[in-house]
From TrEMBL:
Domain of life: Eukaryota
Organism: Mytilus coruscus
InterPro entries: FN3_sf
Name of the protein in question: Uncharacterized protein
Length: 615
């Protein structure tokens, strides 16, 4: 089988072709491809060098681990090893007694007991499975005549002496000679087979289970069970001896009101096992006792998420993750036995909850659970149930207040440079502050906080200037209802282009980040700032009528042309009427040598376009 699965949309696509073992699983974002080659695997295990014990059941246990590291253990139904032939009664003066290999079906009385055929499972060619005996006088196994245990040696003859009047019949129950008692097993307290409880929550019933009682010769015929308040097989003050058949291995004894169990006291169950011999023998086993605990565990706290500091999670940005943590659960009498976790989901923020993961057990040392394999949808409400069980099997269930799955970031309503809401300025005169106005909304989880970055484009270089570390954010959590932000203490360059990146973070942790279109900085204290100037602004519009952010050039300053002045030798001021036409801009230079001194005066020179560089 080959298929694609989209974890984002939860859609599955069955693919016709299969690549095979030479290809690995592919993945693109939330879209993954899987292949299942074959419907299963077959494996045979044969062990022929074992020393199996007679009359014991043997099992195969298989531990299976898949590629995701999930583990499971399964067991076979078991097989009973029987290495002996059936036992007979007393045999004396036998003329034949030997073992041979005989096919099972040839021994079945076809007309009388055809139902025995189901027990023929084949034979082992190495094991002699059939015992043939011809007994003699004094034997107590096979008897002639209709009277039990009486061997009829003679009978009255009739005229039908030459006719074969014999028929084959099989007794319903064998006569077994067994002089030994059964082997005792284990008696456990509690109703769960194979499990021994140290505590019980019940006051009106007392339960026990037992196992491994057996008798290799005649088997177990029945059990007798009693209960008492002391670890003594003869004390039956809680429940008198009651008989149970050999197939029963659990029993719960109802108690009358005057025999109700008391909180904090310990009680014991006794089991007698009787074998199937003519003169039945028995063995006895007694439990180690069960203490009554009528109280439930003491609840603690359980919350969604697994945040450090035991902080409750109200919203989640993950469609796959469910986490829960708890603390301070205890039981002063029987301690905590285990925890179980169940997950429920309600679609579209309703209260119509359904179970999406049933009870999963965890040990009593567990304090948190994390799953990463859910397929949650946007606006799902998820809550987690925690069931706590003490040693007496008393349980309590506590539920978290739940969280909402929010898979979308906040929505931008408006964004612009400057402080005026809904407006976007393209120029500013200040060189120490920068402002932005904005509006975000989040209908699912609500806004949590804002964060900012400031970018500068100057002399062809674009860089982040706030914070100075590239990629870092300046987080602001003082007022979630804010609609504007001003950053002070800047040193902005004249003619530099500045923009603010505004990030809105919702309570699920999703971020919506947008940049302002940016603005040009003009310094009013510069002497050229009052001169006429020209700016080129370029904006692209596509065929659908959608326009890009404007790109703005540096300003073109309009100034007067450079003007020449007048240069006059000497400094006796005889040319004052001529120089007065050039205003007050007068420069005088003196030069001296060993013979004479020279003085030069020039006035009216002005370089507005390029500026005065040197004279």
């Amino acid at each position: 089988m080959s298929f694609n699965y989209d974890f984002g949309k939860a859609t599955c696509e069955l693919v016709e072709a299969i690549e095979g073992h030479d290809y690995k699983r592919s993945k693109s974002g939330l879209f993954e491809h899987y292949e299942r080659l074959g419907v299963g695997k077959t494996k045979q295990f044969v062990y022929d060098q074992l020393s199996l014990q007679h009359n014991r059941i043997h099992y195969f246990n298989f531990m299976m681990v898949n590629v995701l590291a999930y583990t499971n253990i399964i067991s076979s139904k078991g097989v009973l090893v029987d290495l002996t032939t059936p036992l007979t009664g007393l045999i004396k003066n036998a003329s034949a007694d030997y073992l041979e290999i005989v096919p099972c079906l040839s021994l079945i009385p076809e007309q009388n007991r055809p139902d025995w055929k189901i027990w023929c499972k084949g034979i082992n060619p190495k094991v002699k499975n059939h015992r043939l005996i011809i007994d003699g006088s004094g034997s107590l196994t096979v008897f002639n005549g209709p009277d039990p245990m009486t061997d009829l040696r003679y009978t009255r003859a009739n005229r039908y002496i030459s006719v074969d009047l014999r028929t084959i019949g099989v007794a319903d129950q064998a006569i077994i000679i067994d002089k030994t008692p059964p082997e005792p097993g284990t008696v456990n307290d509690g109703p769960l087979y194979g499990t021994d409880l140290l505590y019980t929550k019940n006051f009106d019933t007392l339960c026990a289970n037992w196992l491994h009682f057996y008798d290799p010769e005649s088997g177990i015929a029945f059990y007798m069970v009693s209960a008492g308040s002391l670890p003594d097989i003869n004390v039956t003050d809680i429940a008198n001896l009651t008989q149970y058949n050999r197939k029963t291995h659990e029993a719960c004894v109802p108690l009358s009101t005057d025999q109700y169990l008391e909180h904090g006291k310990t009680y014991y169950t006794t089991v007698w096992a009787y074998n199937g011999a003519i003169r039945q023998r028995n063995c006895v086993g007694i439990s180690n006792g069960v203490t009554v605990d009528l109280t439930k565990p003491v609840p603690g706290q359980v919350i969604d998420g697994n945040v450090t500091g035991f902080k409750d999670v109200m919203f989640s940005p993950s469609p796959a993750k469910v986490e829960v943590q708890w603390r301070n659960y205890y039981d002063p009498e029987s301690t905590i036995k285990q925890y179980e976790v169940q997950v429920e989901r309600a679609p579209n923020q309703t209260n119509d909850y359904s179970v999406i993961r049933d009870w999963v057990p965890y040990s009593n040392t567990t304090r948190s659970v994390k799953w990463l394999n859910f397929h949650l949808q946007h606006k799902d409400k998820v809550k987690v149930n925690l069931r706590t069980t003490n040693g007496a099997l008393n349980t309590i269930v506590n539920t978290t207040d739940g969280f909402v799955v929010d898979l979308t970031p906040p929505t931008l309503i408006s964004l612009g440079d400057g402080l005026e809401p809904g407006k976007d300025i393209e120029f500013q005169s200040g060189n120490t502050t920068l402002s932005a106005n904005f509006k975000f909304v989040d209908e699912e989880s609500g806004l949590d906080h804002y964060k900012f970055q400031i970018y500068e484009r100057h002399q062809g270089i674009t860089q982040q200037i706030v914070p100075h570390k590239h990629g870092a954010w300046l987080e602001v959590k003082d007022d979630i209802h804010r609609t504007k932000y001003t950053h002070t203490g800047l040193s902005l360059h004249q003619g530099g282009f500045y923009s603010i990146r505004v990030g809105a973070v919702n309570k699920a942790g999703f971020v919506a980040a947008f940049d302002t279109s940016g603005g040009l900085t003009m310094n009013p204290h510069n002497q050229t700032a009052h001169s006429p100037h020209t700016i080129c602004c370029l904006k692209a519009i596509n065929g659908a009528g959608l326009g890009s952010d404007p790109v703005i050039s540096t300003p073109i300053i309009v100034v007067d042309e450079d003007e020449p002045g007048i240069v006059i030798d000497g400094a006796d001021r005889t040319e004052i009427p001529i120089m007065s036409d050039f205003g007050d801009r007068t420069l005088t230079f003196h030069q001296s040598d060993y013979v004479h001194s020279q003085c030069t005066v020039y006035r009216g020179l002005r370089a507005c376009l390029h500026g005065d560089m040197a004279h």
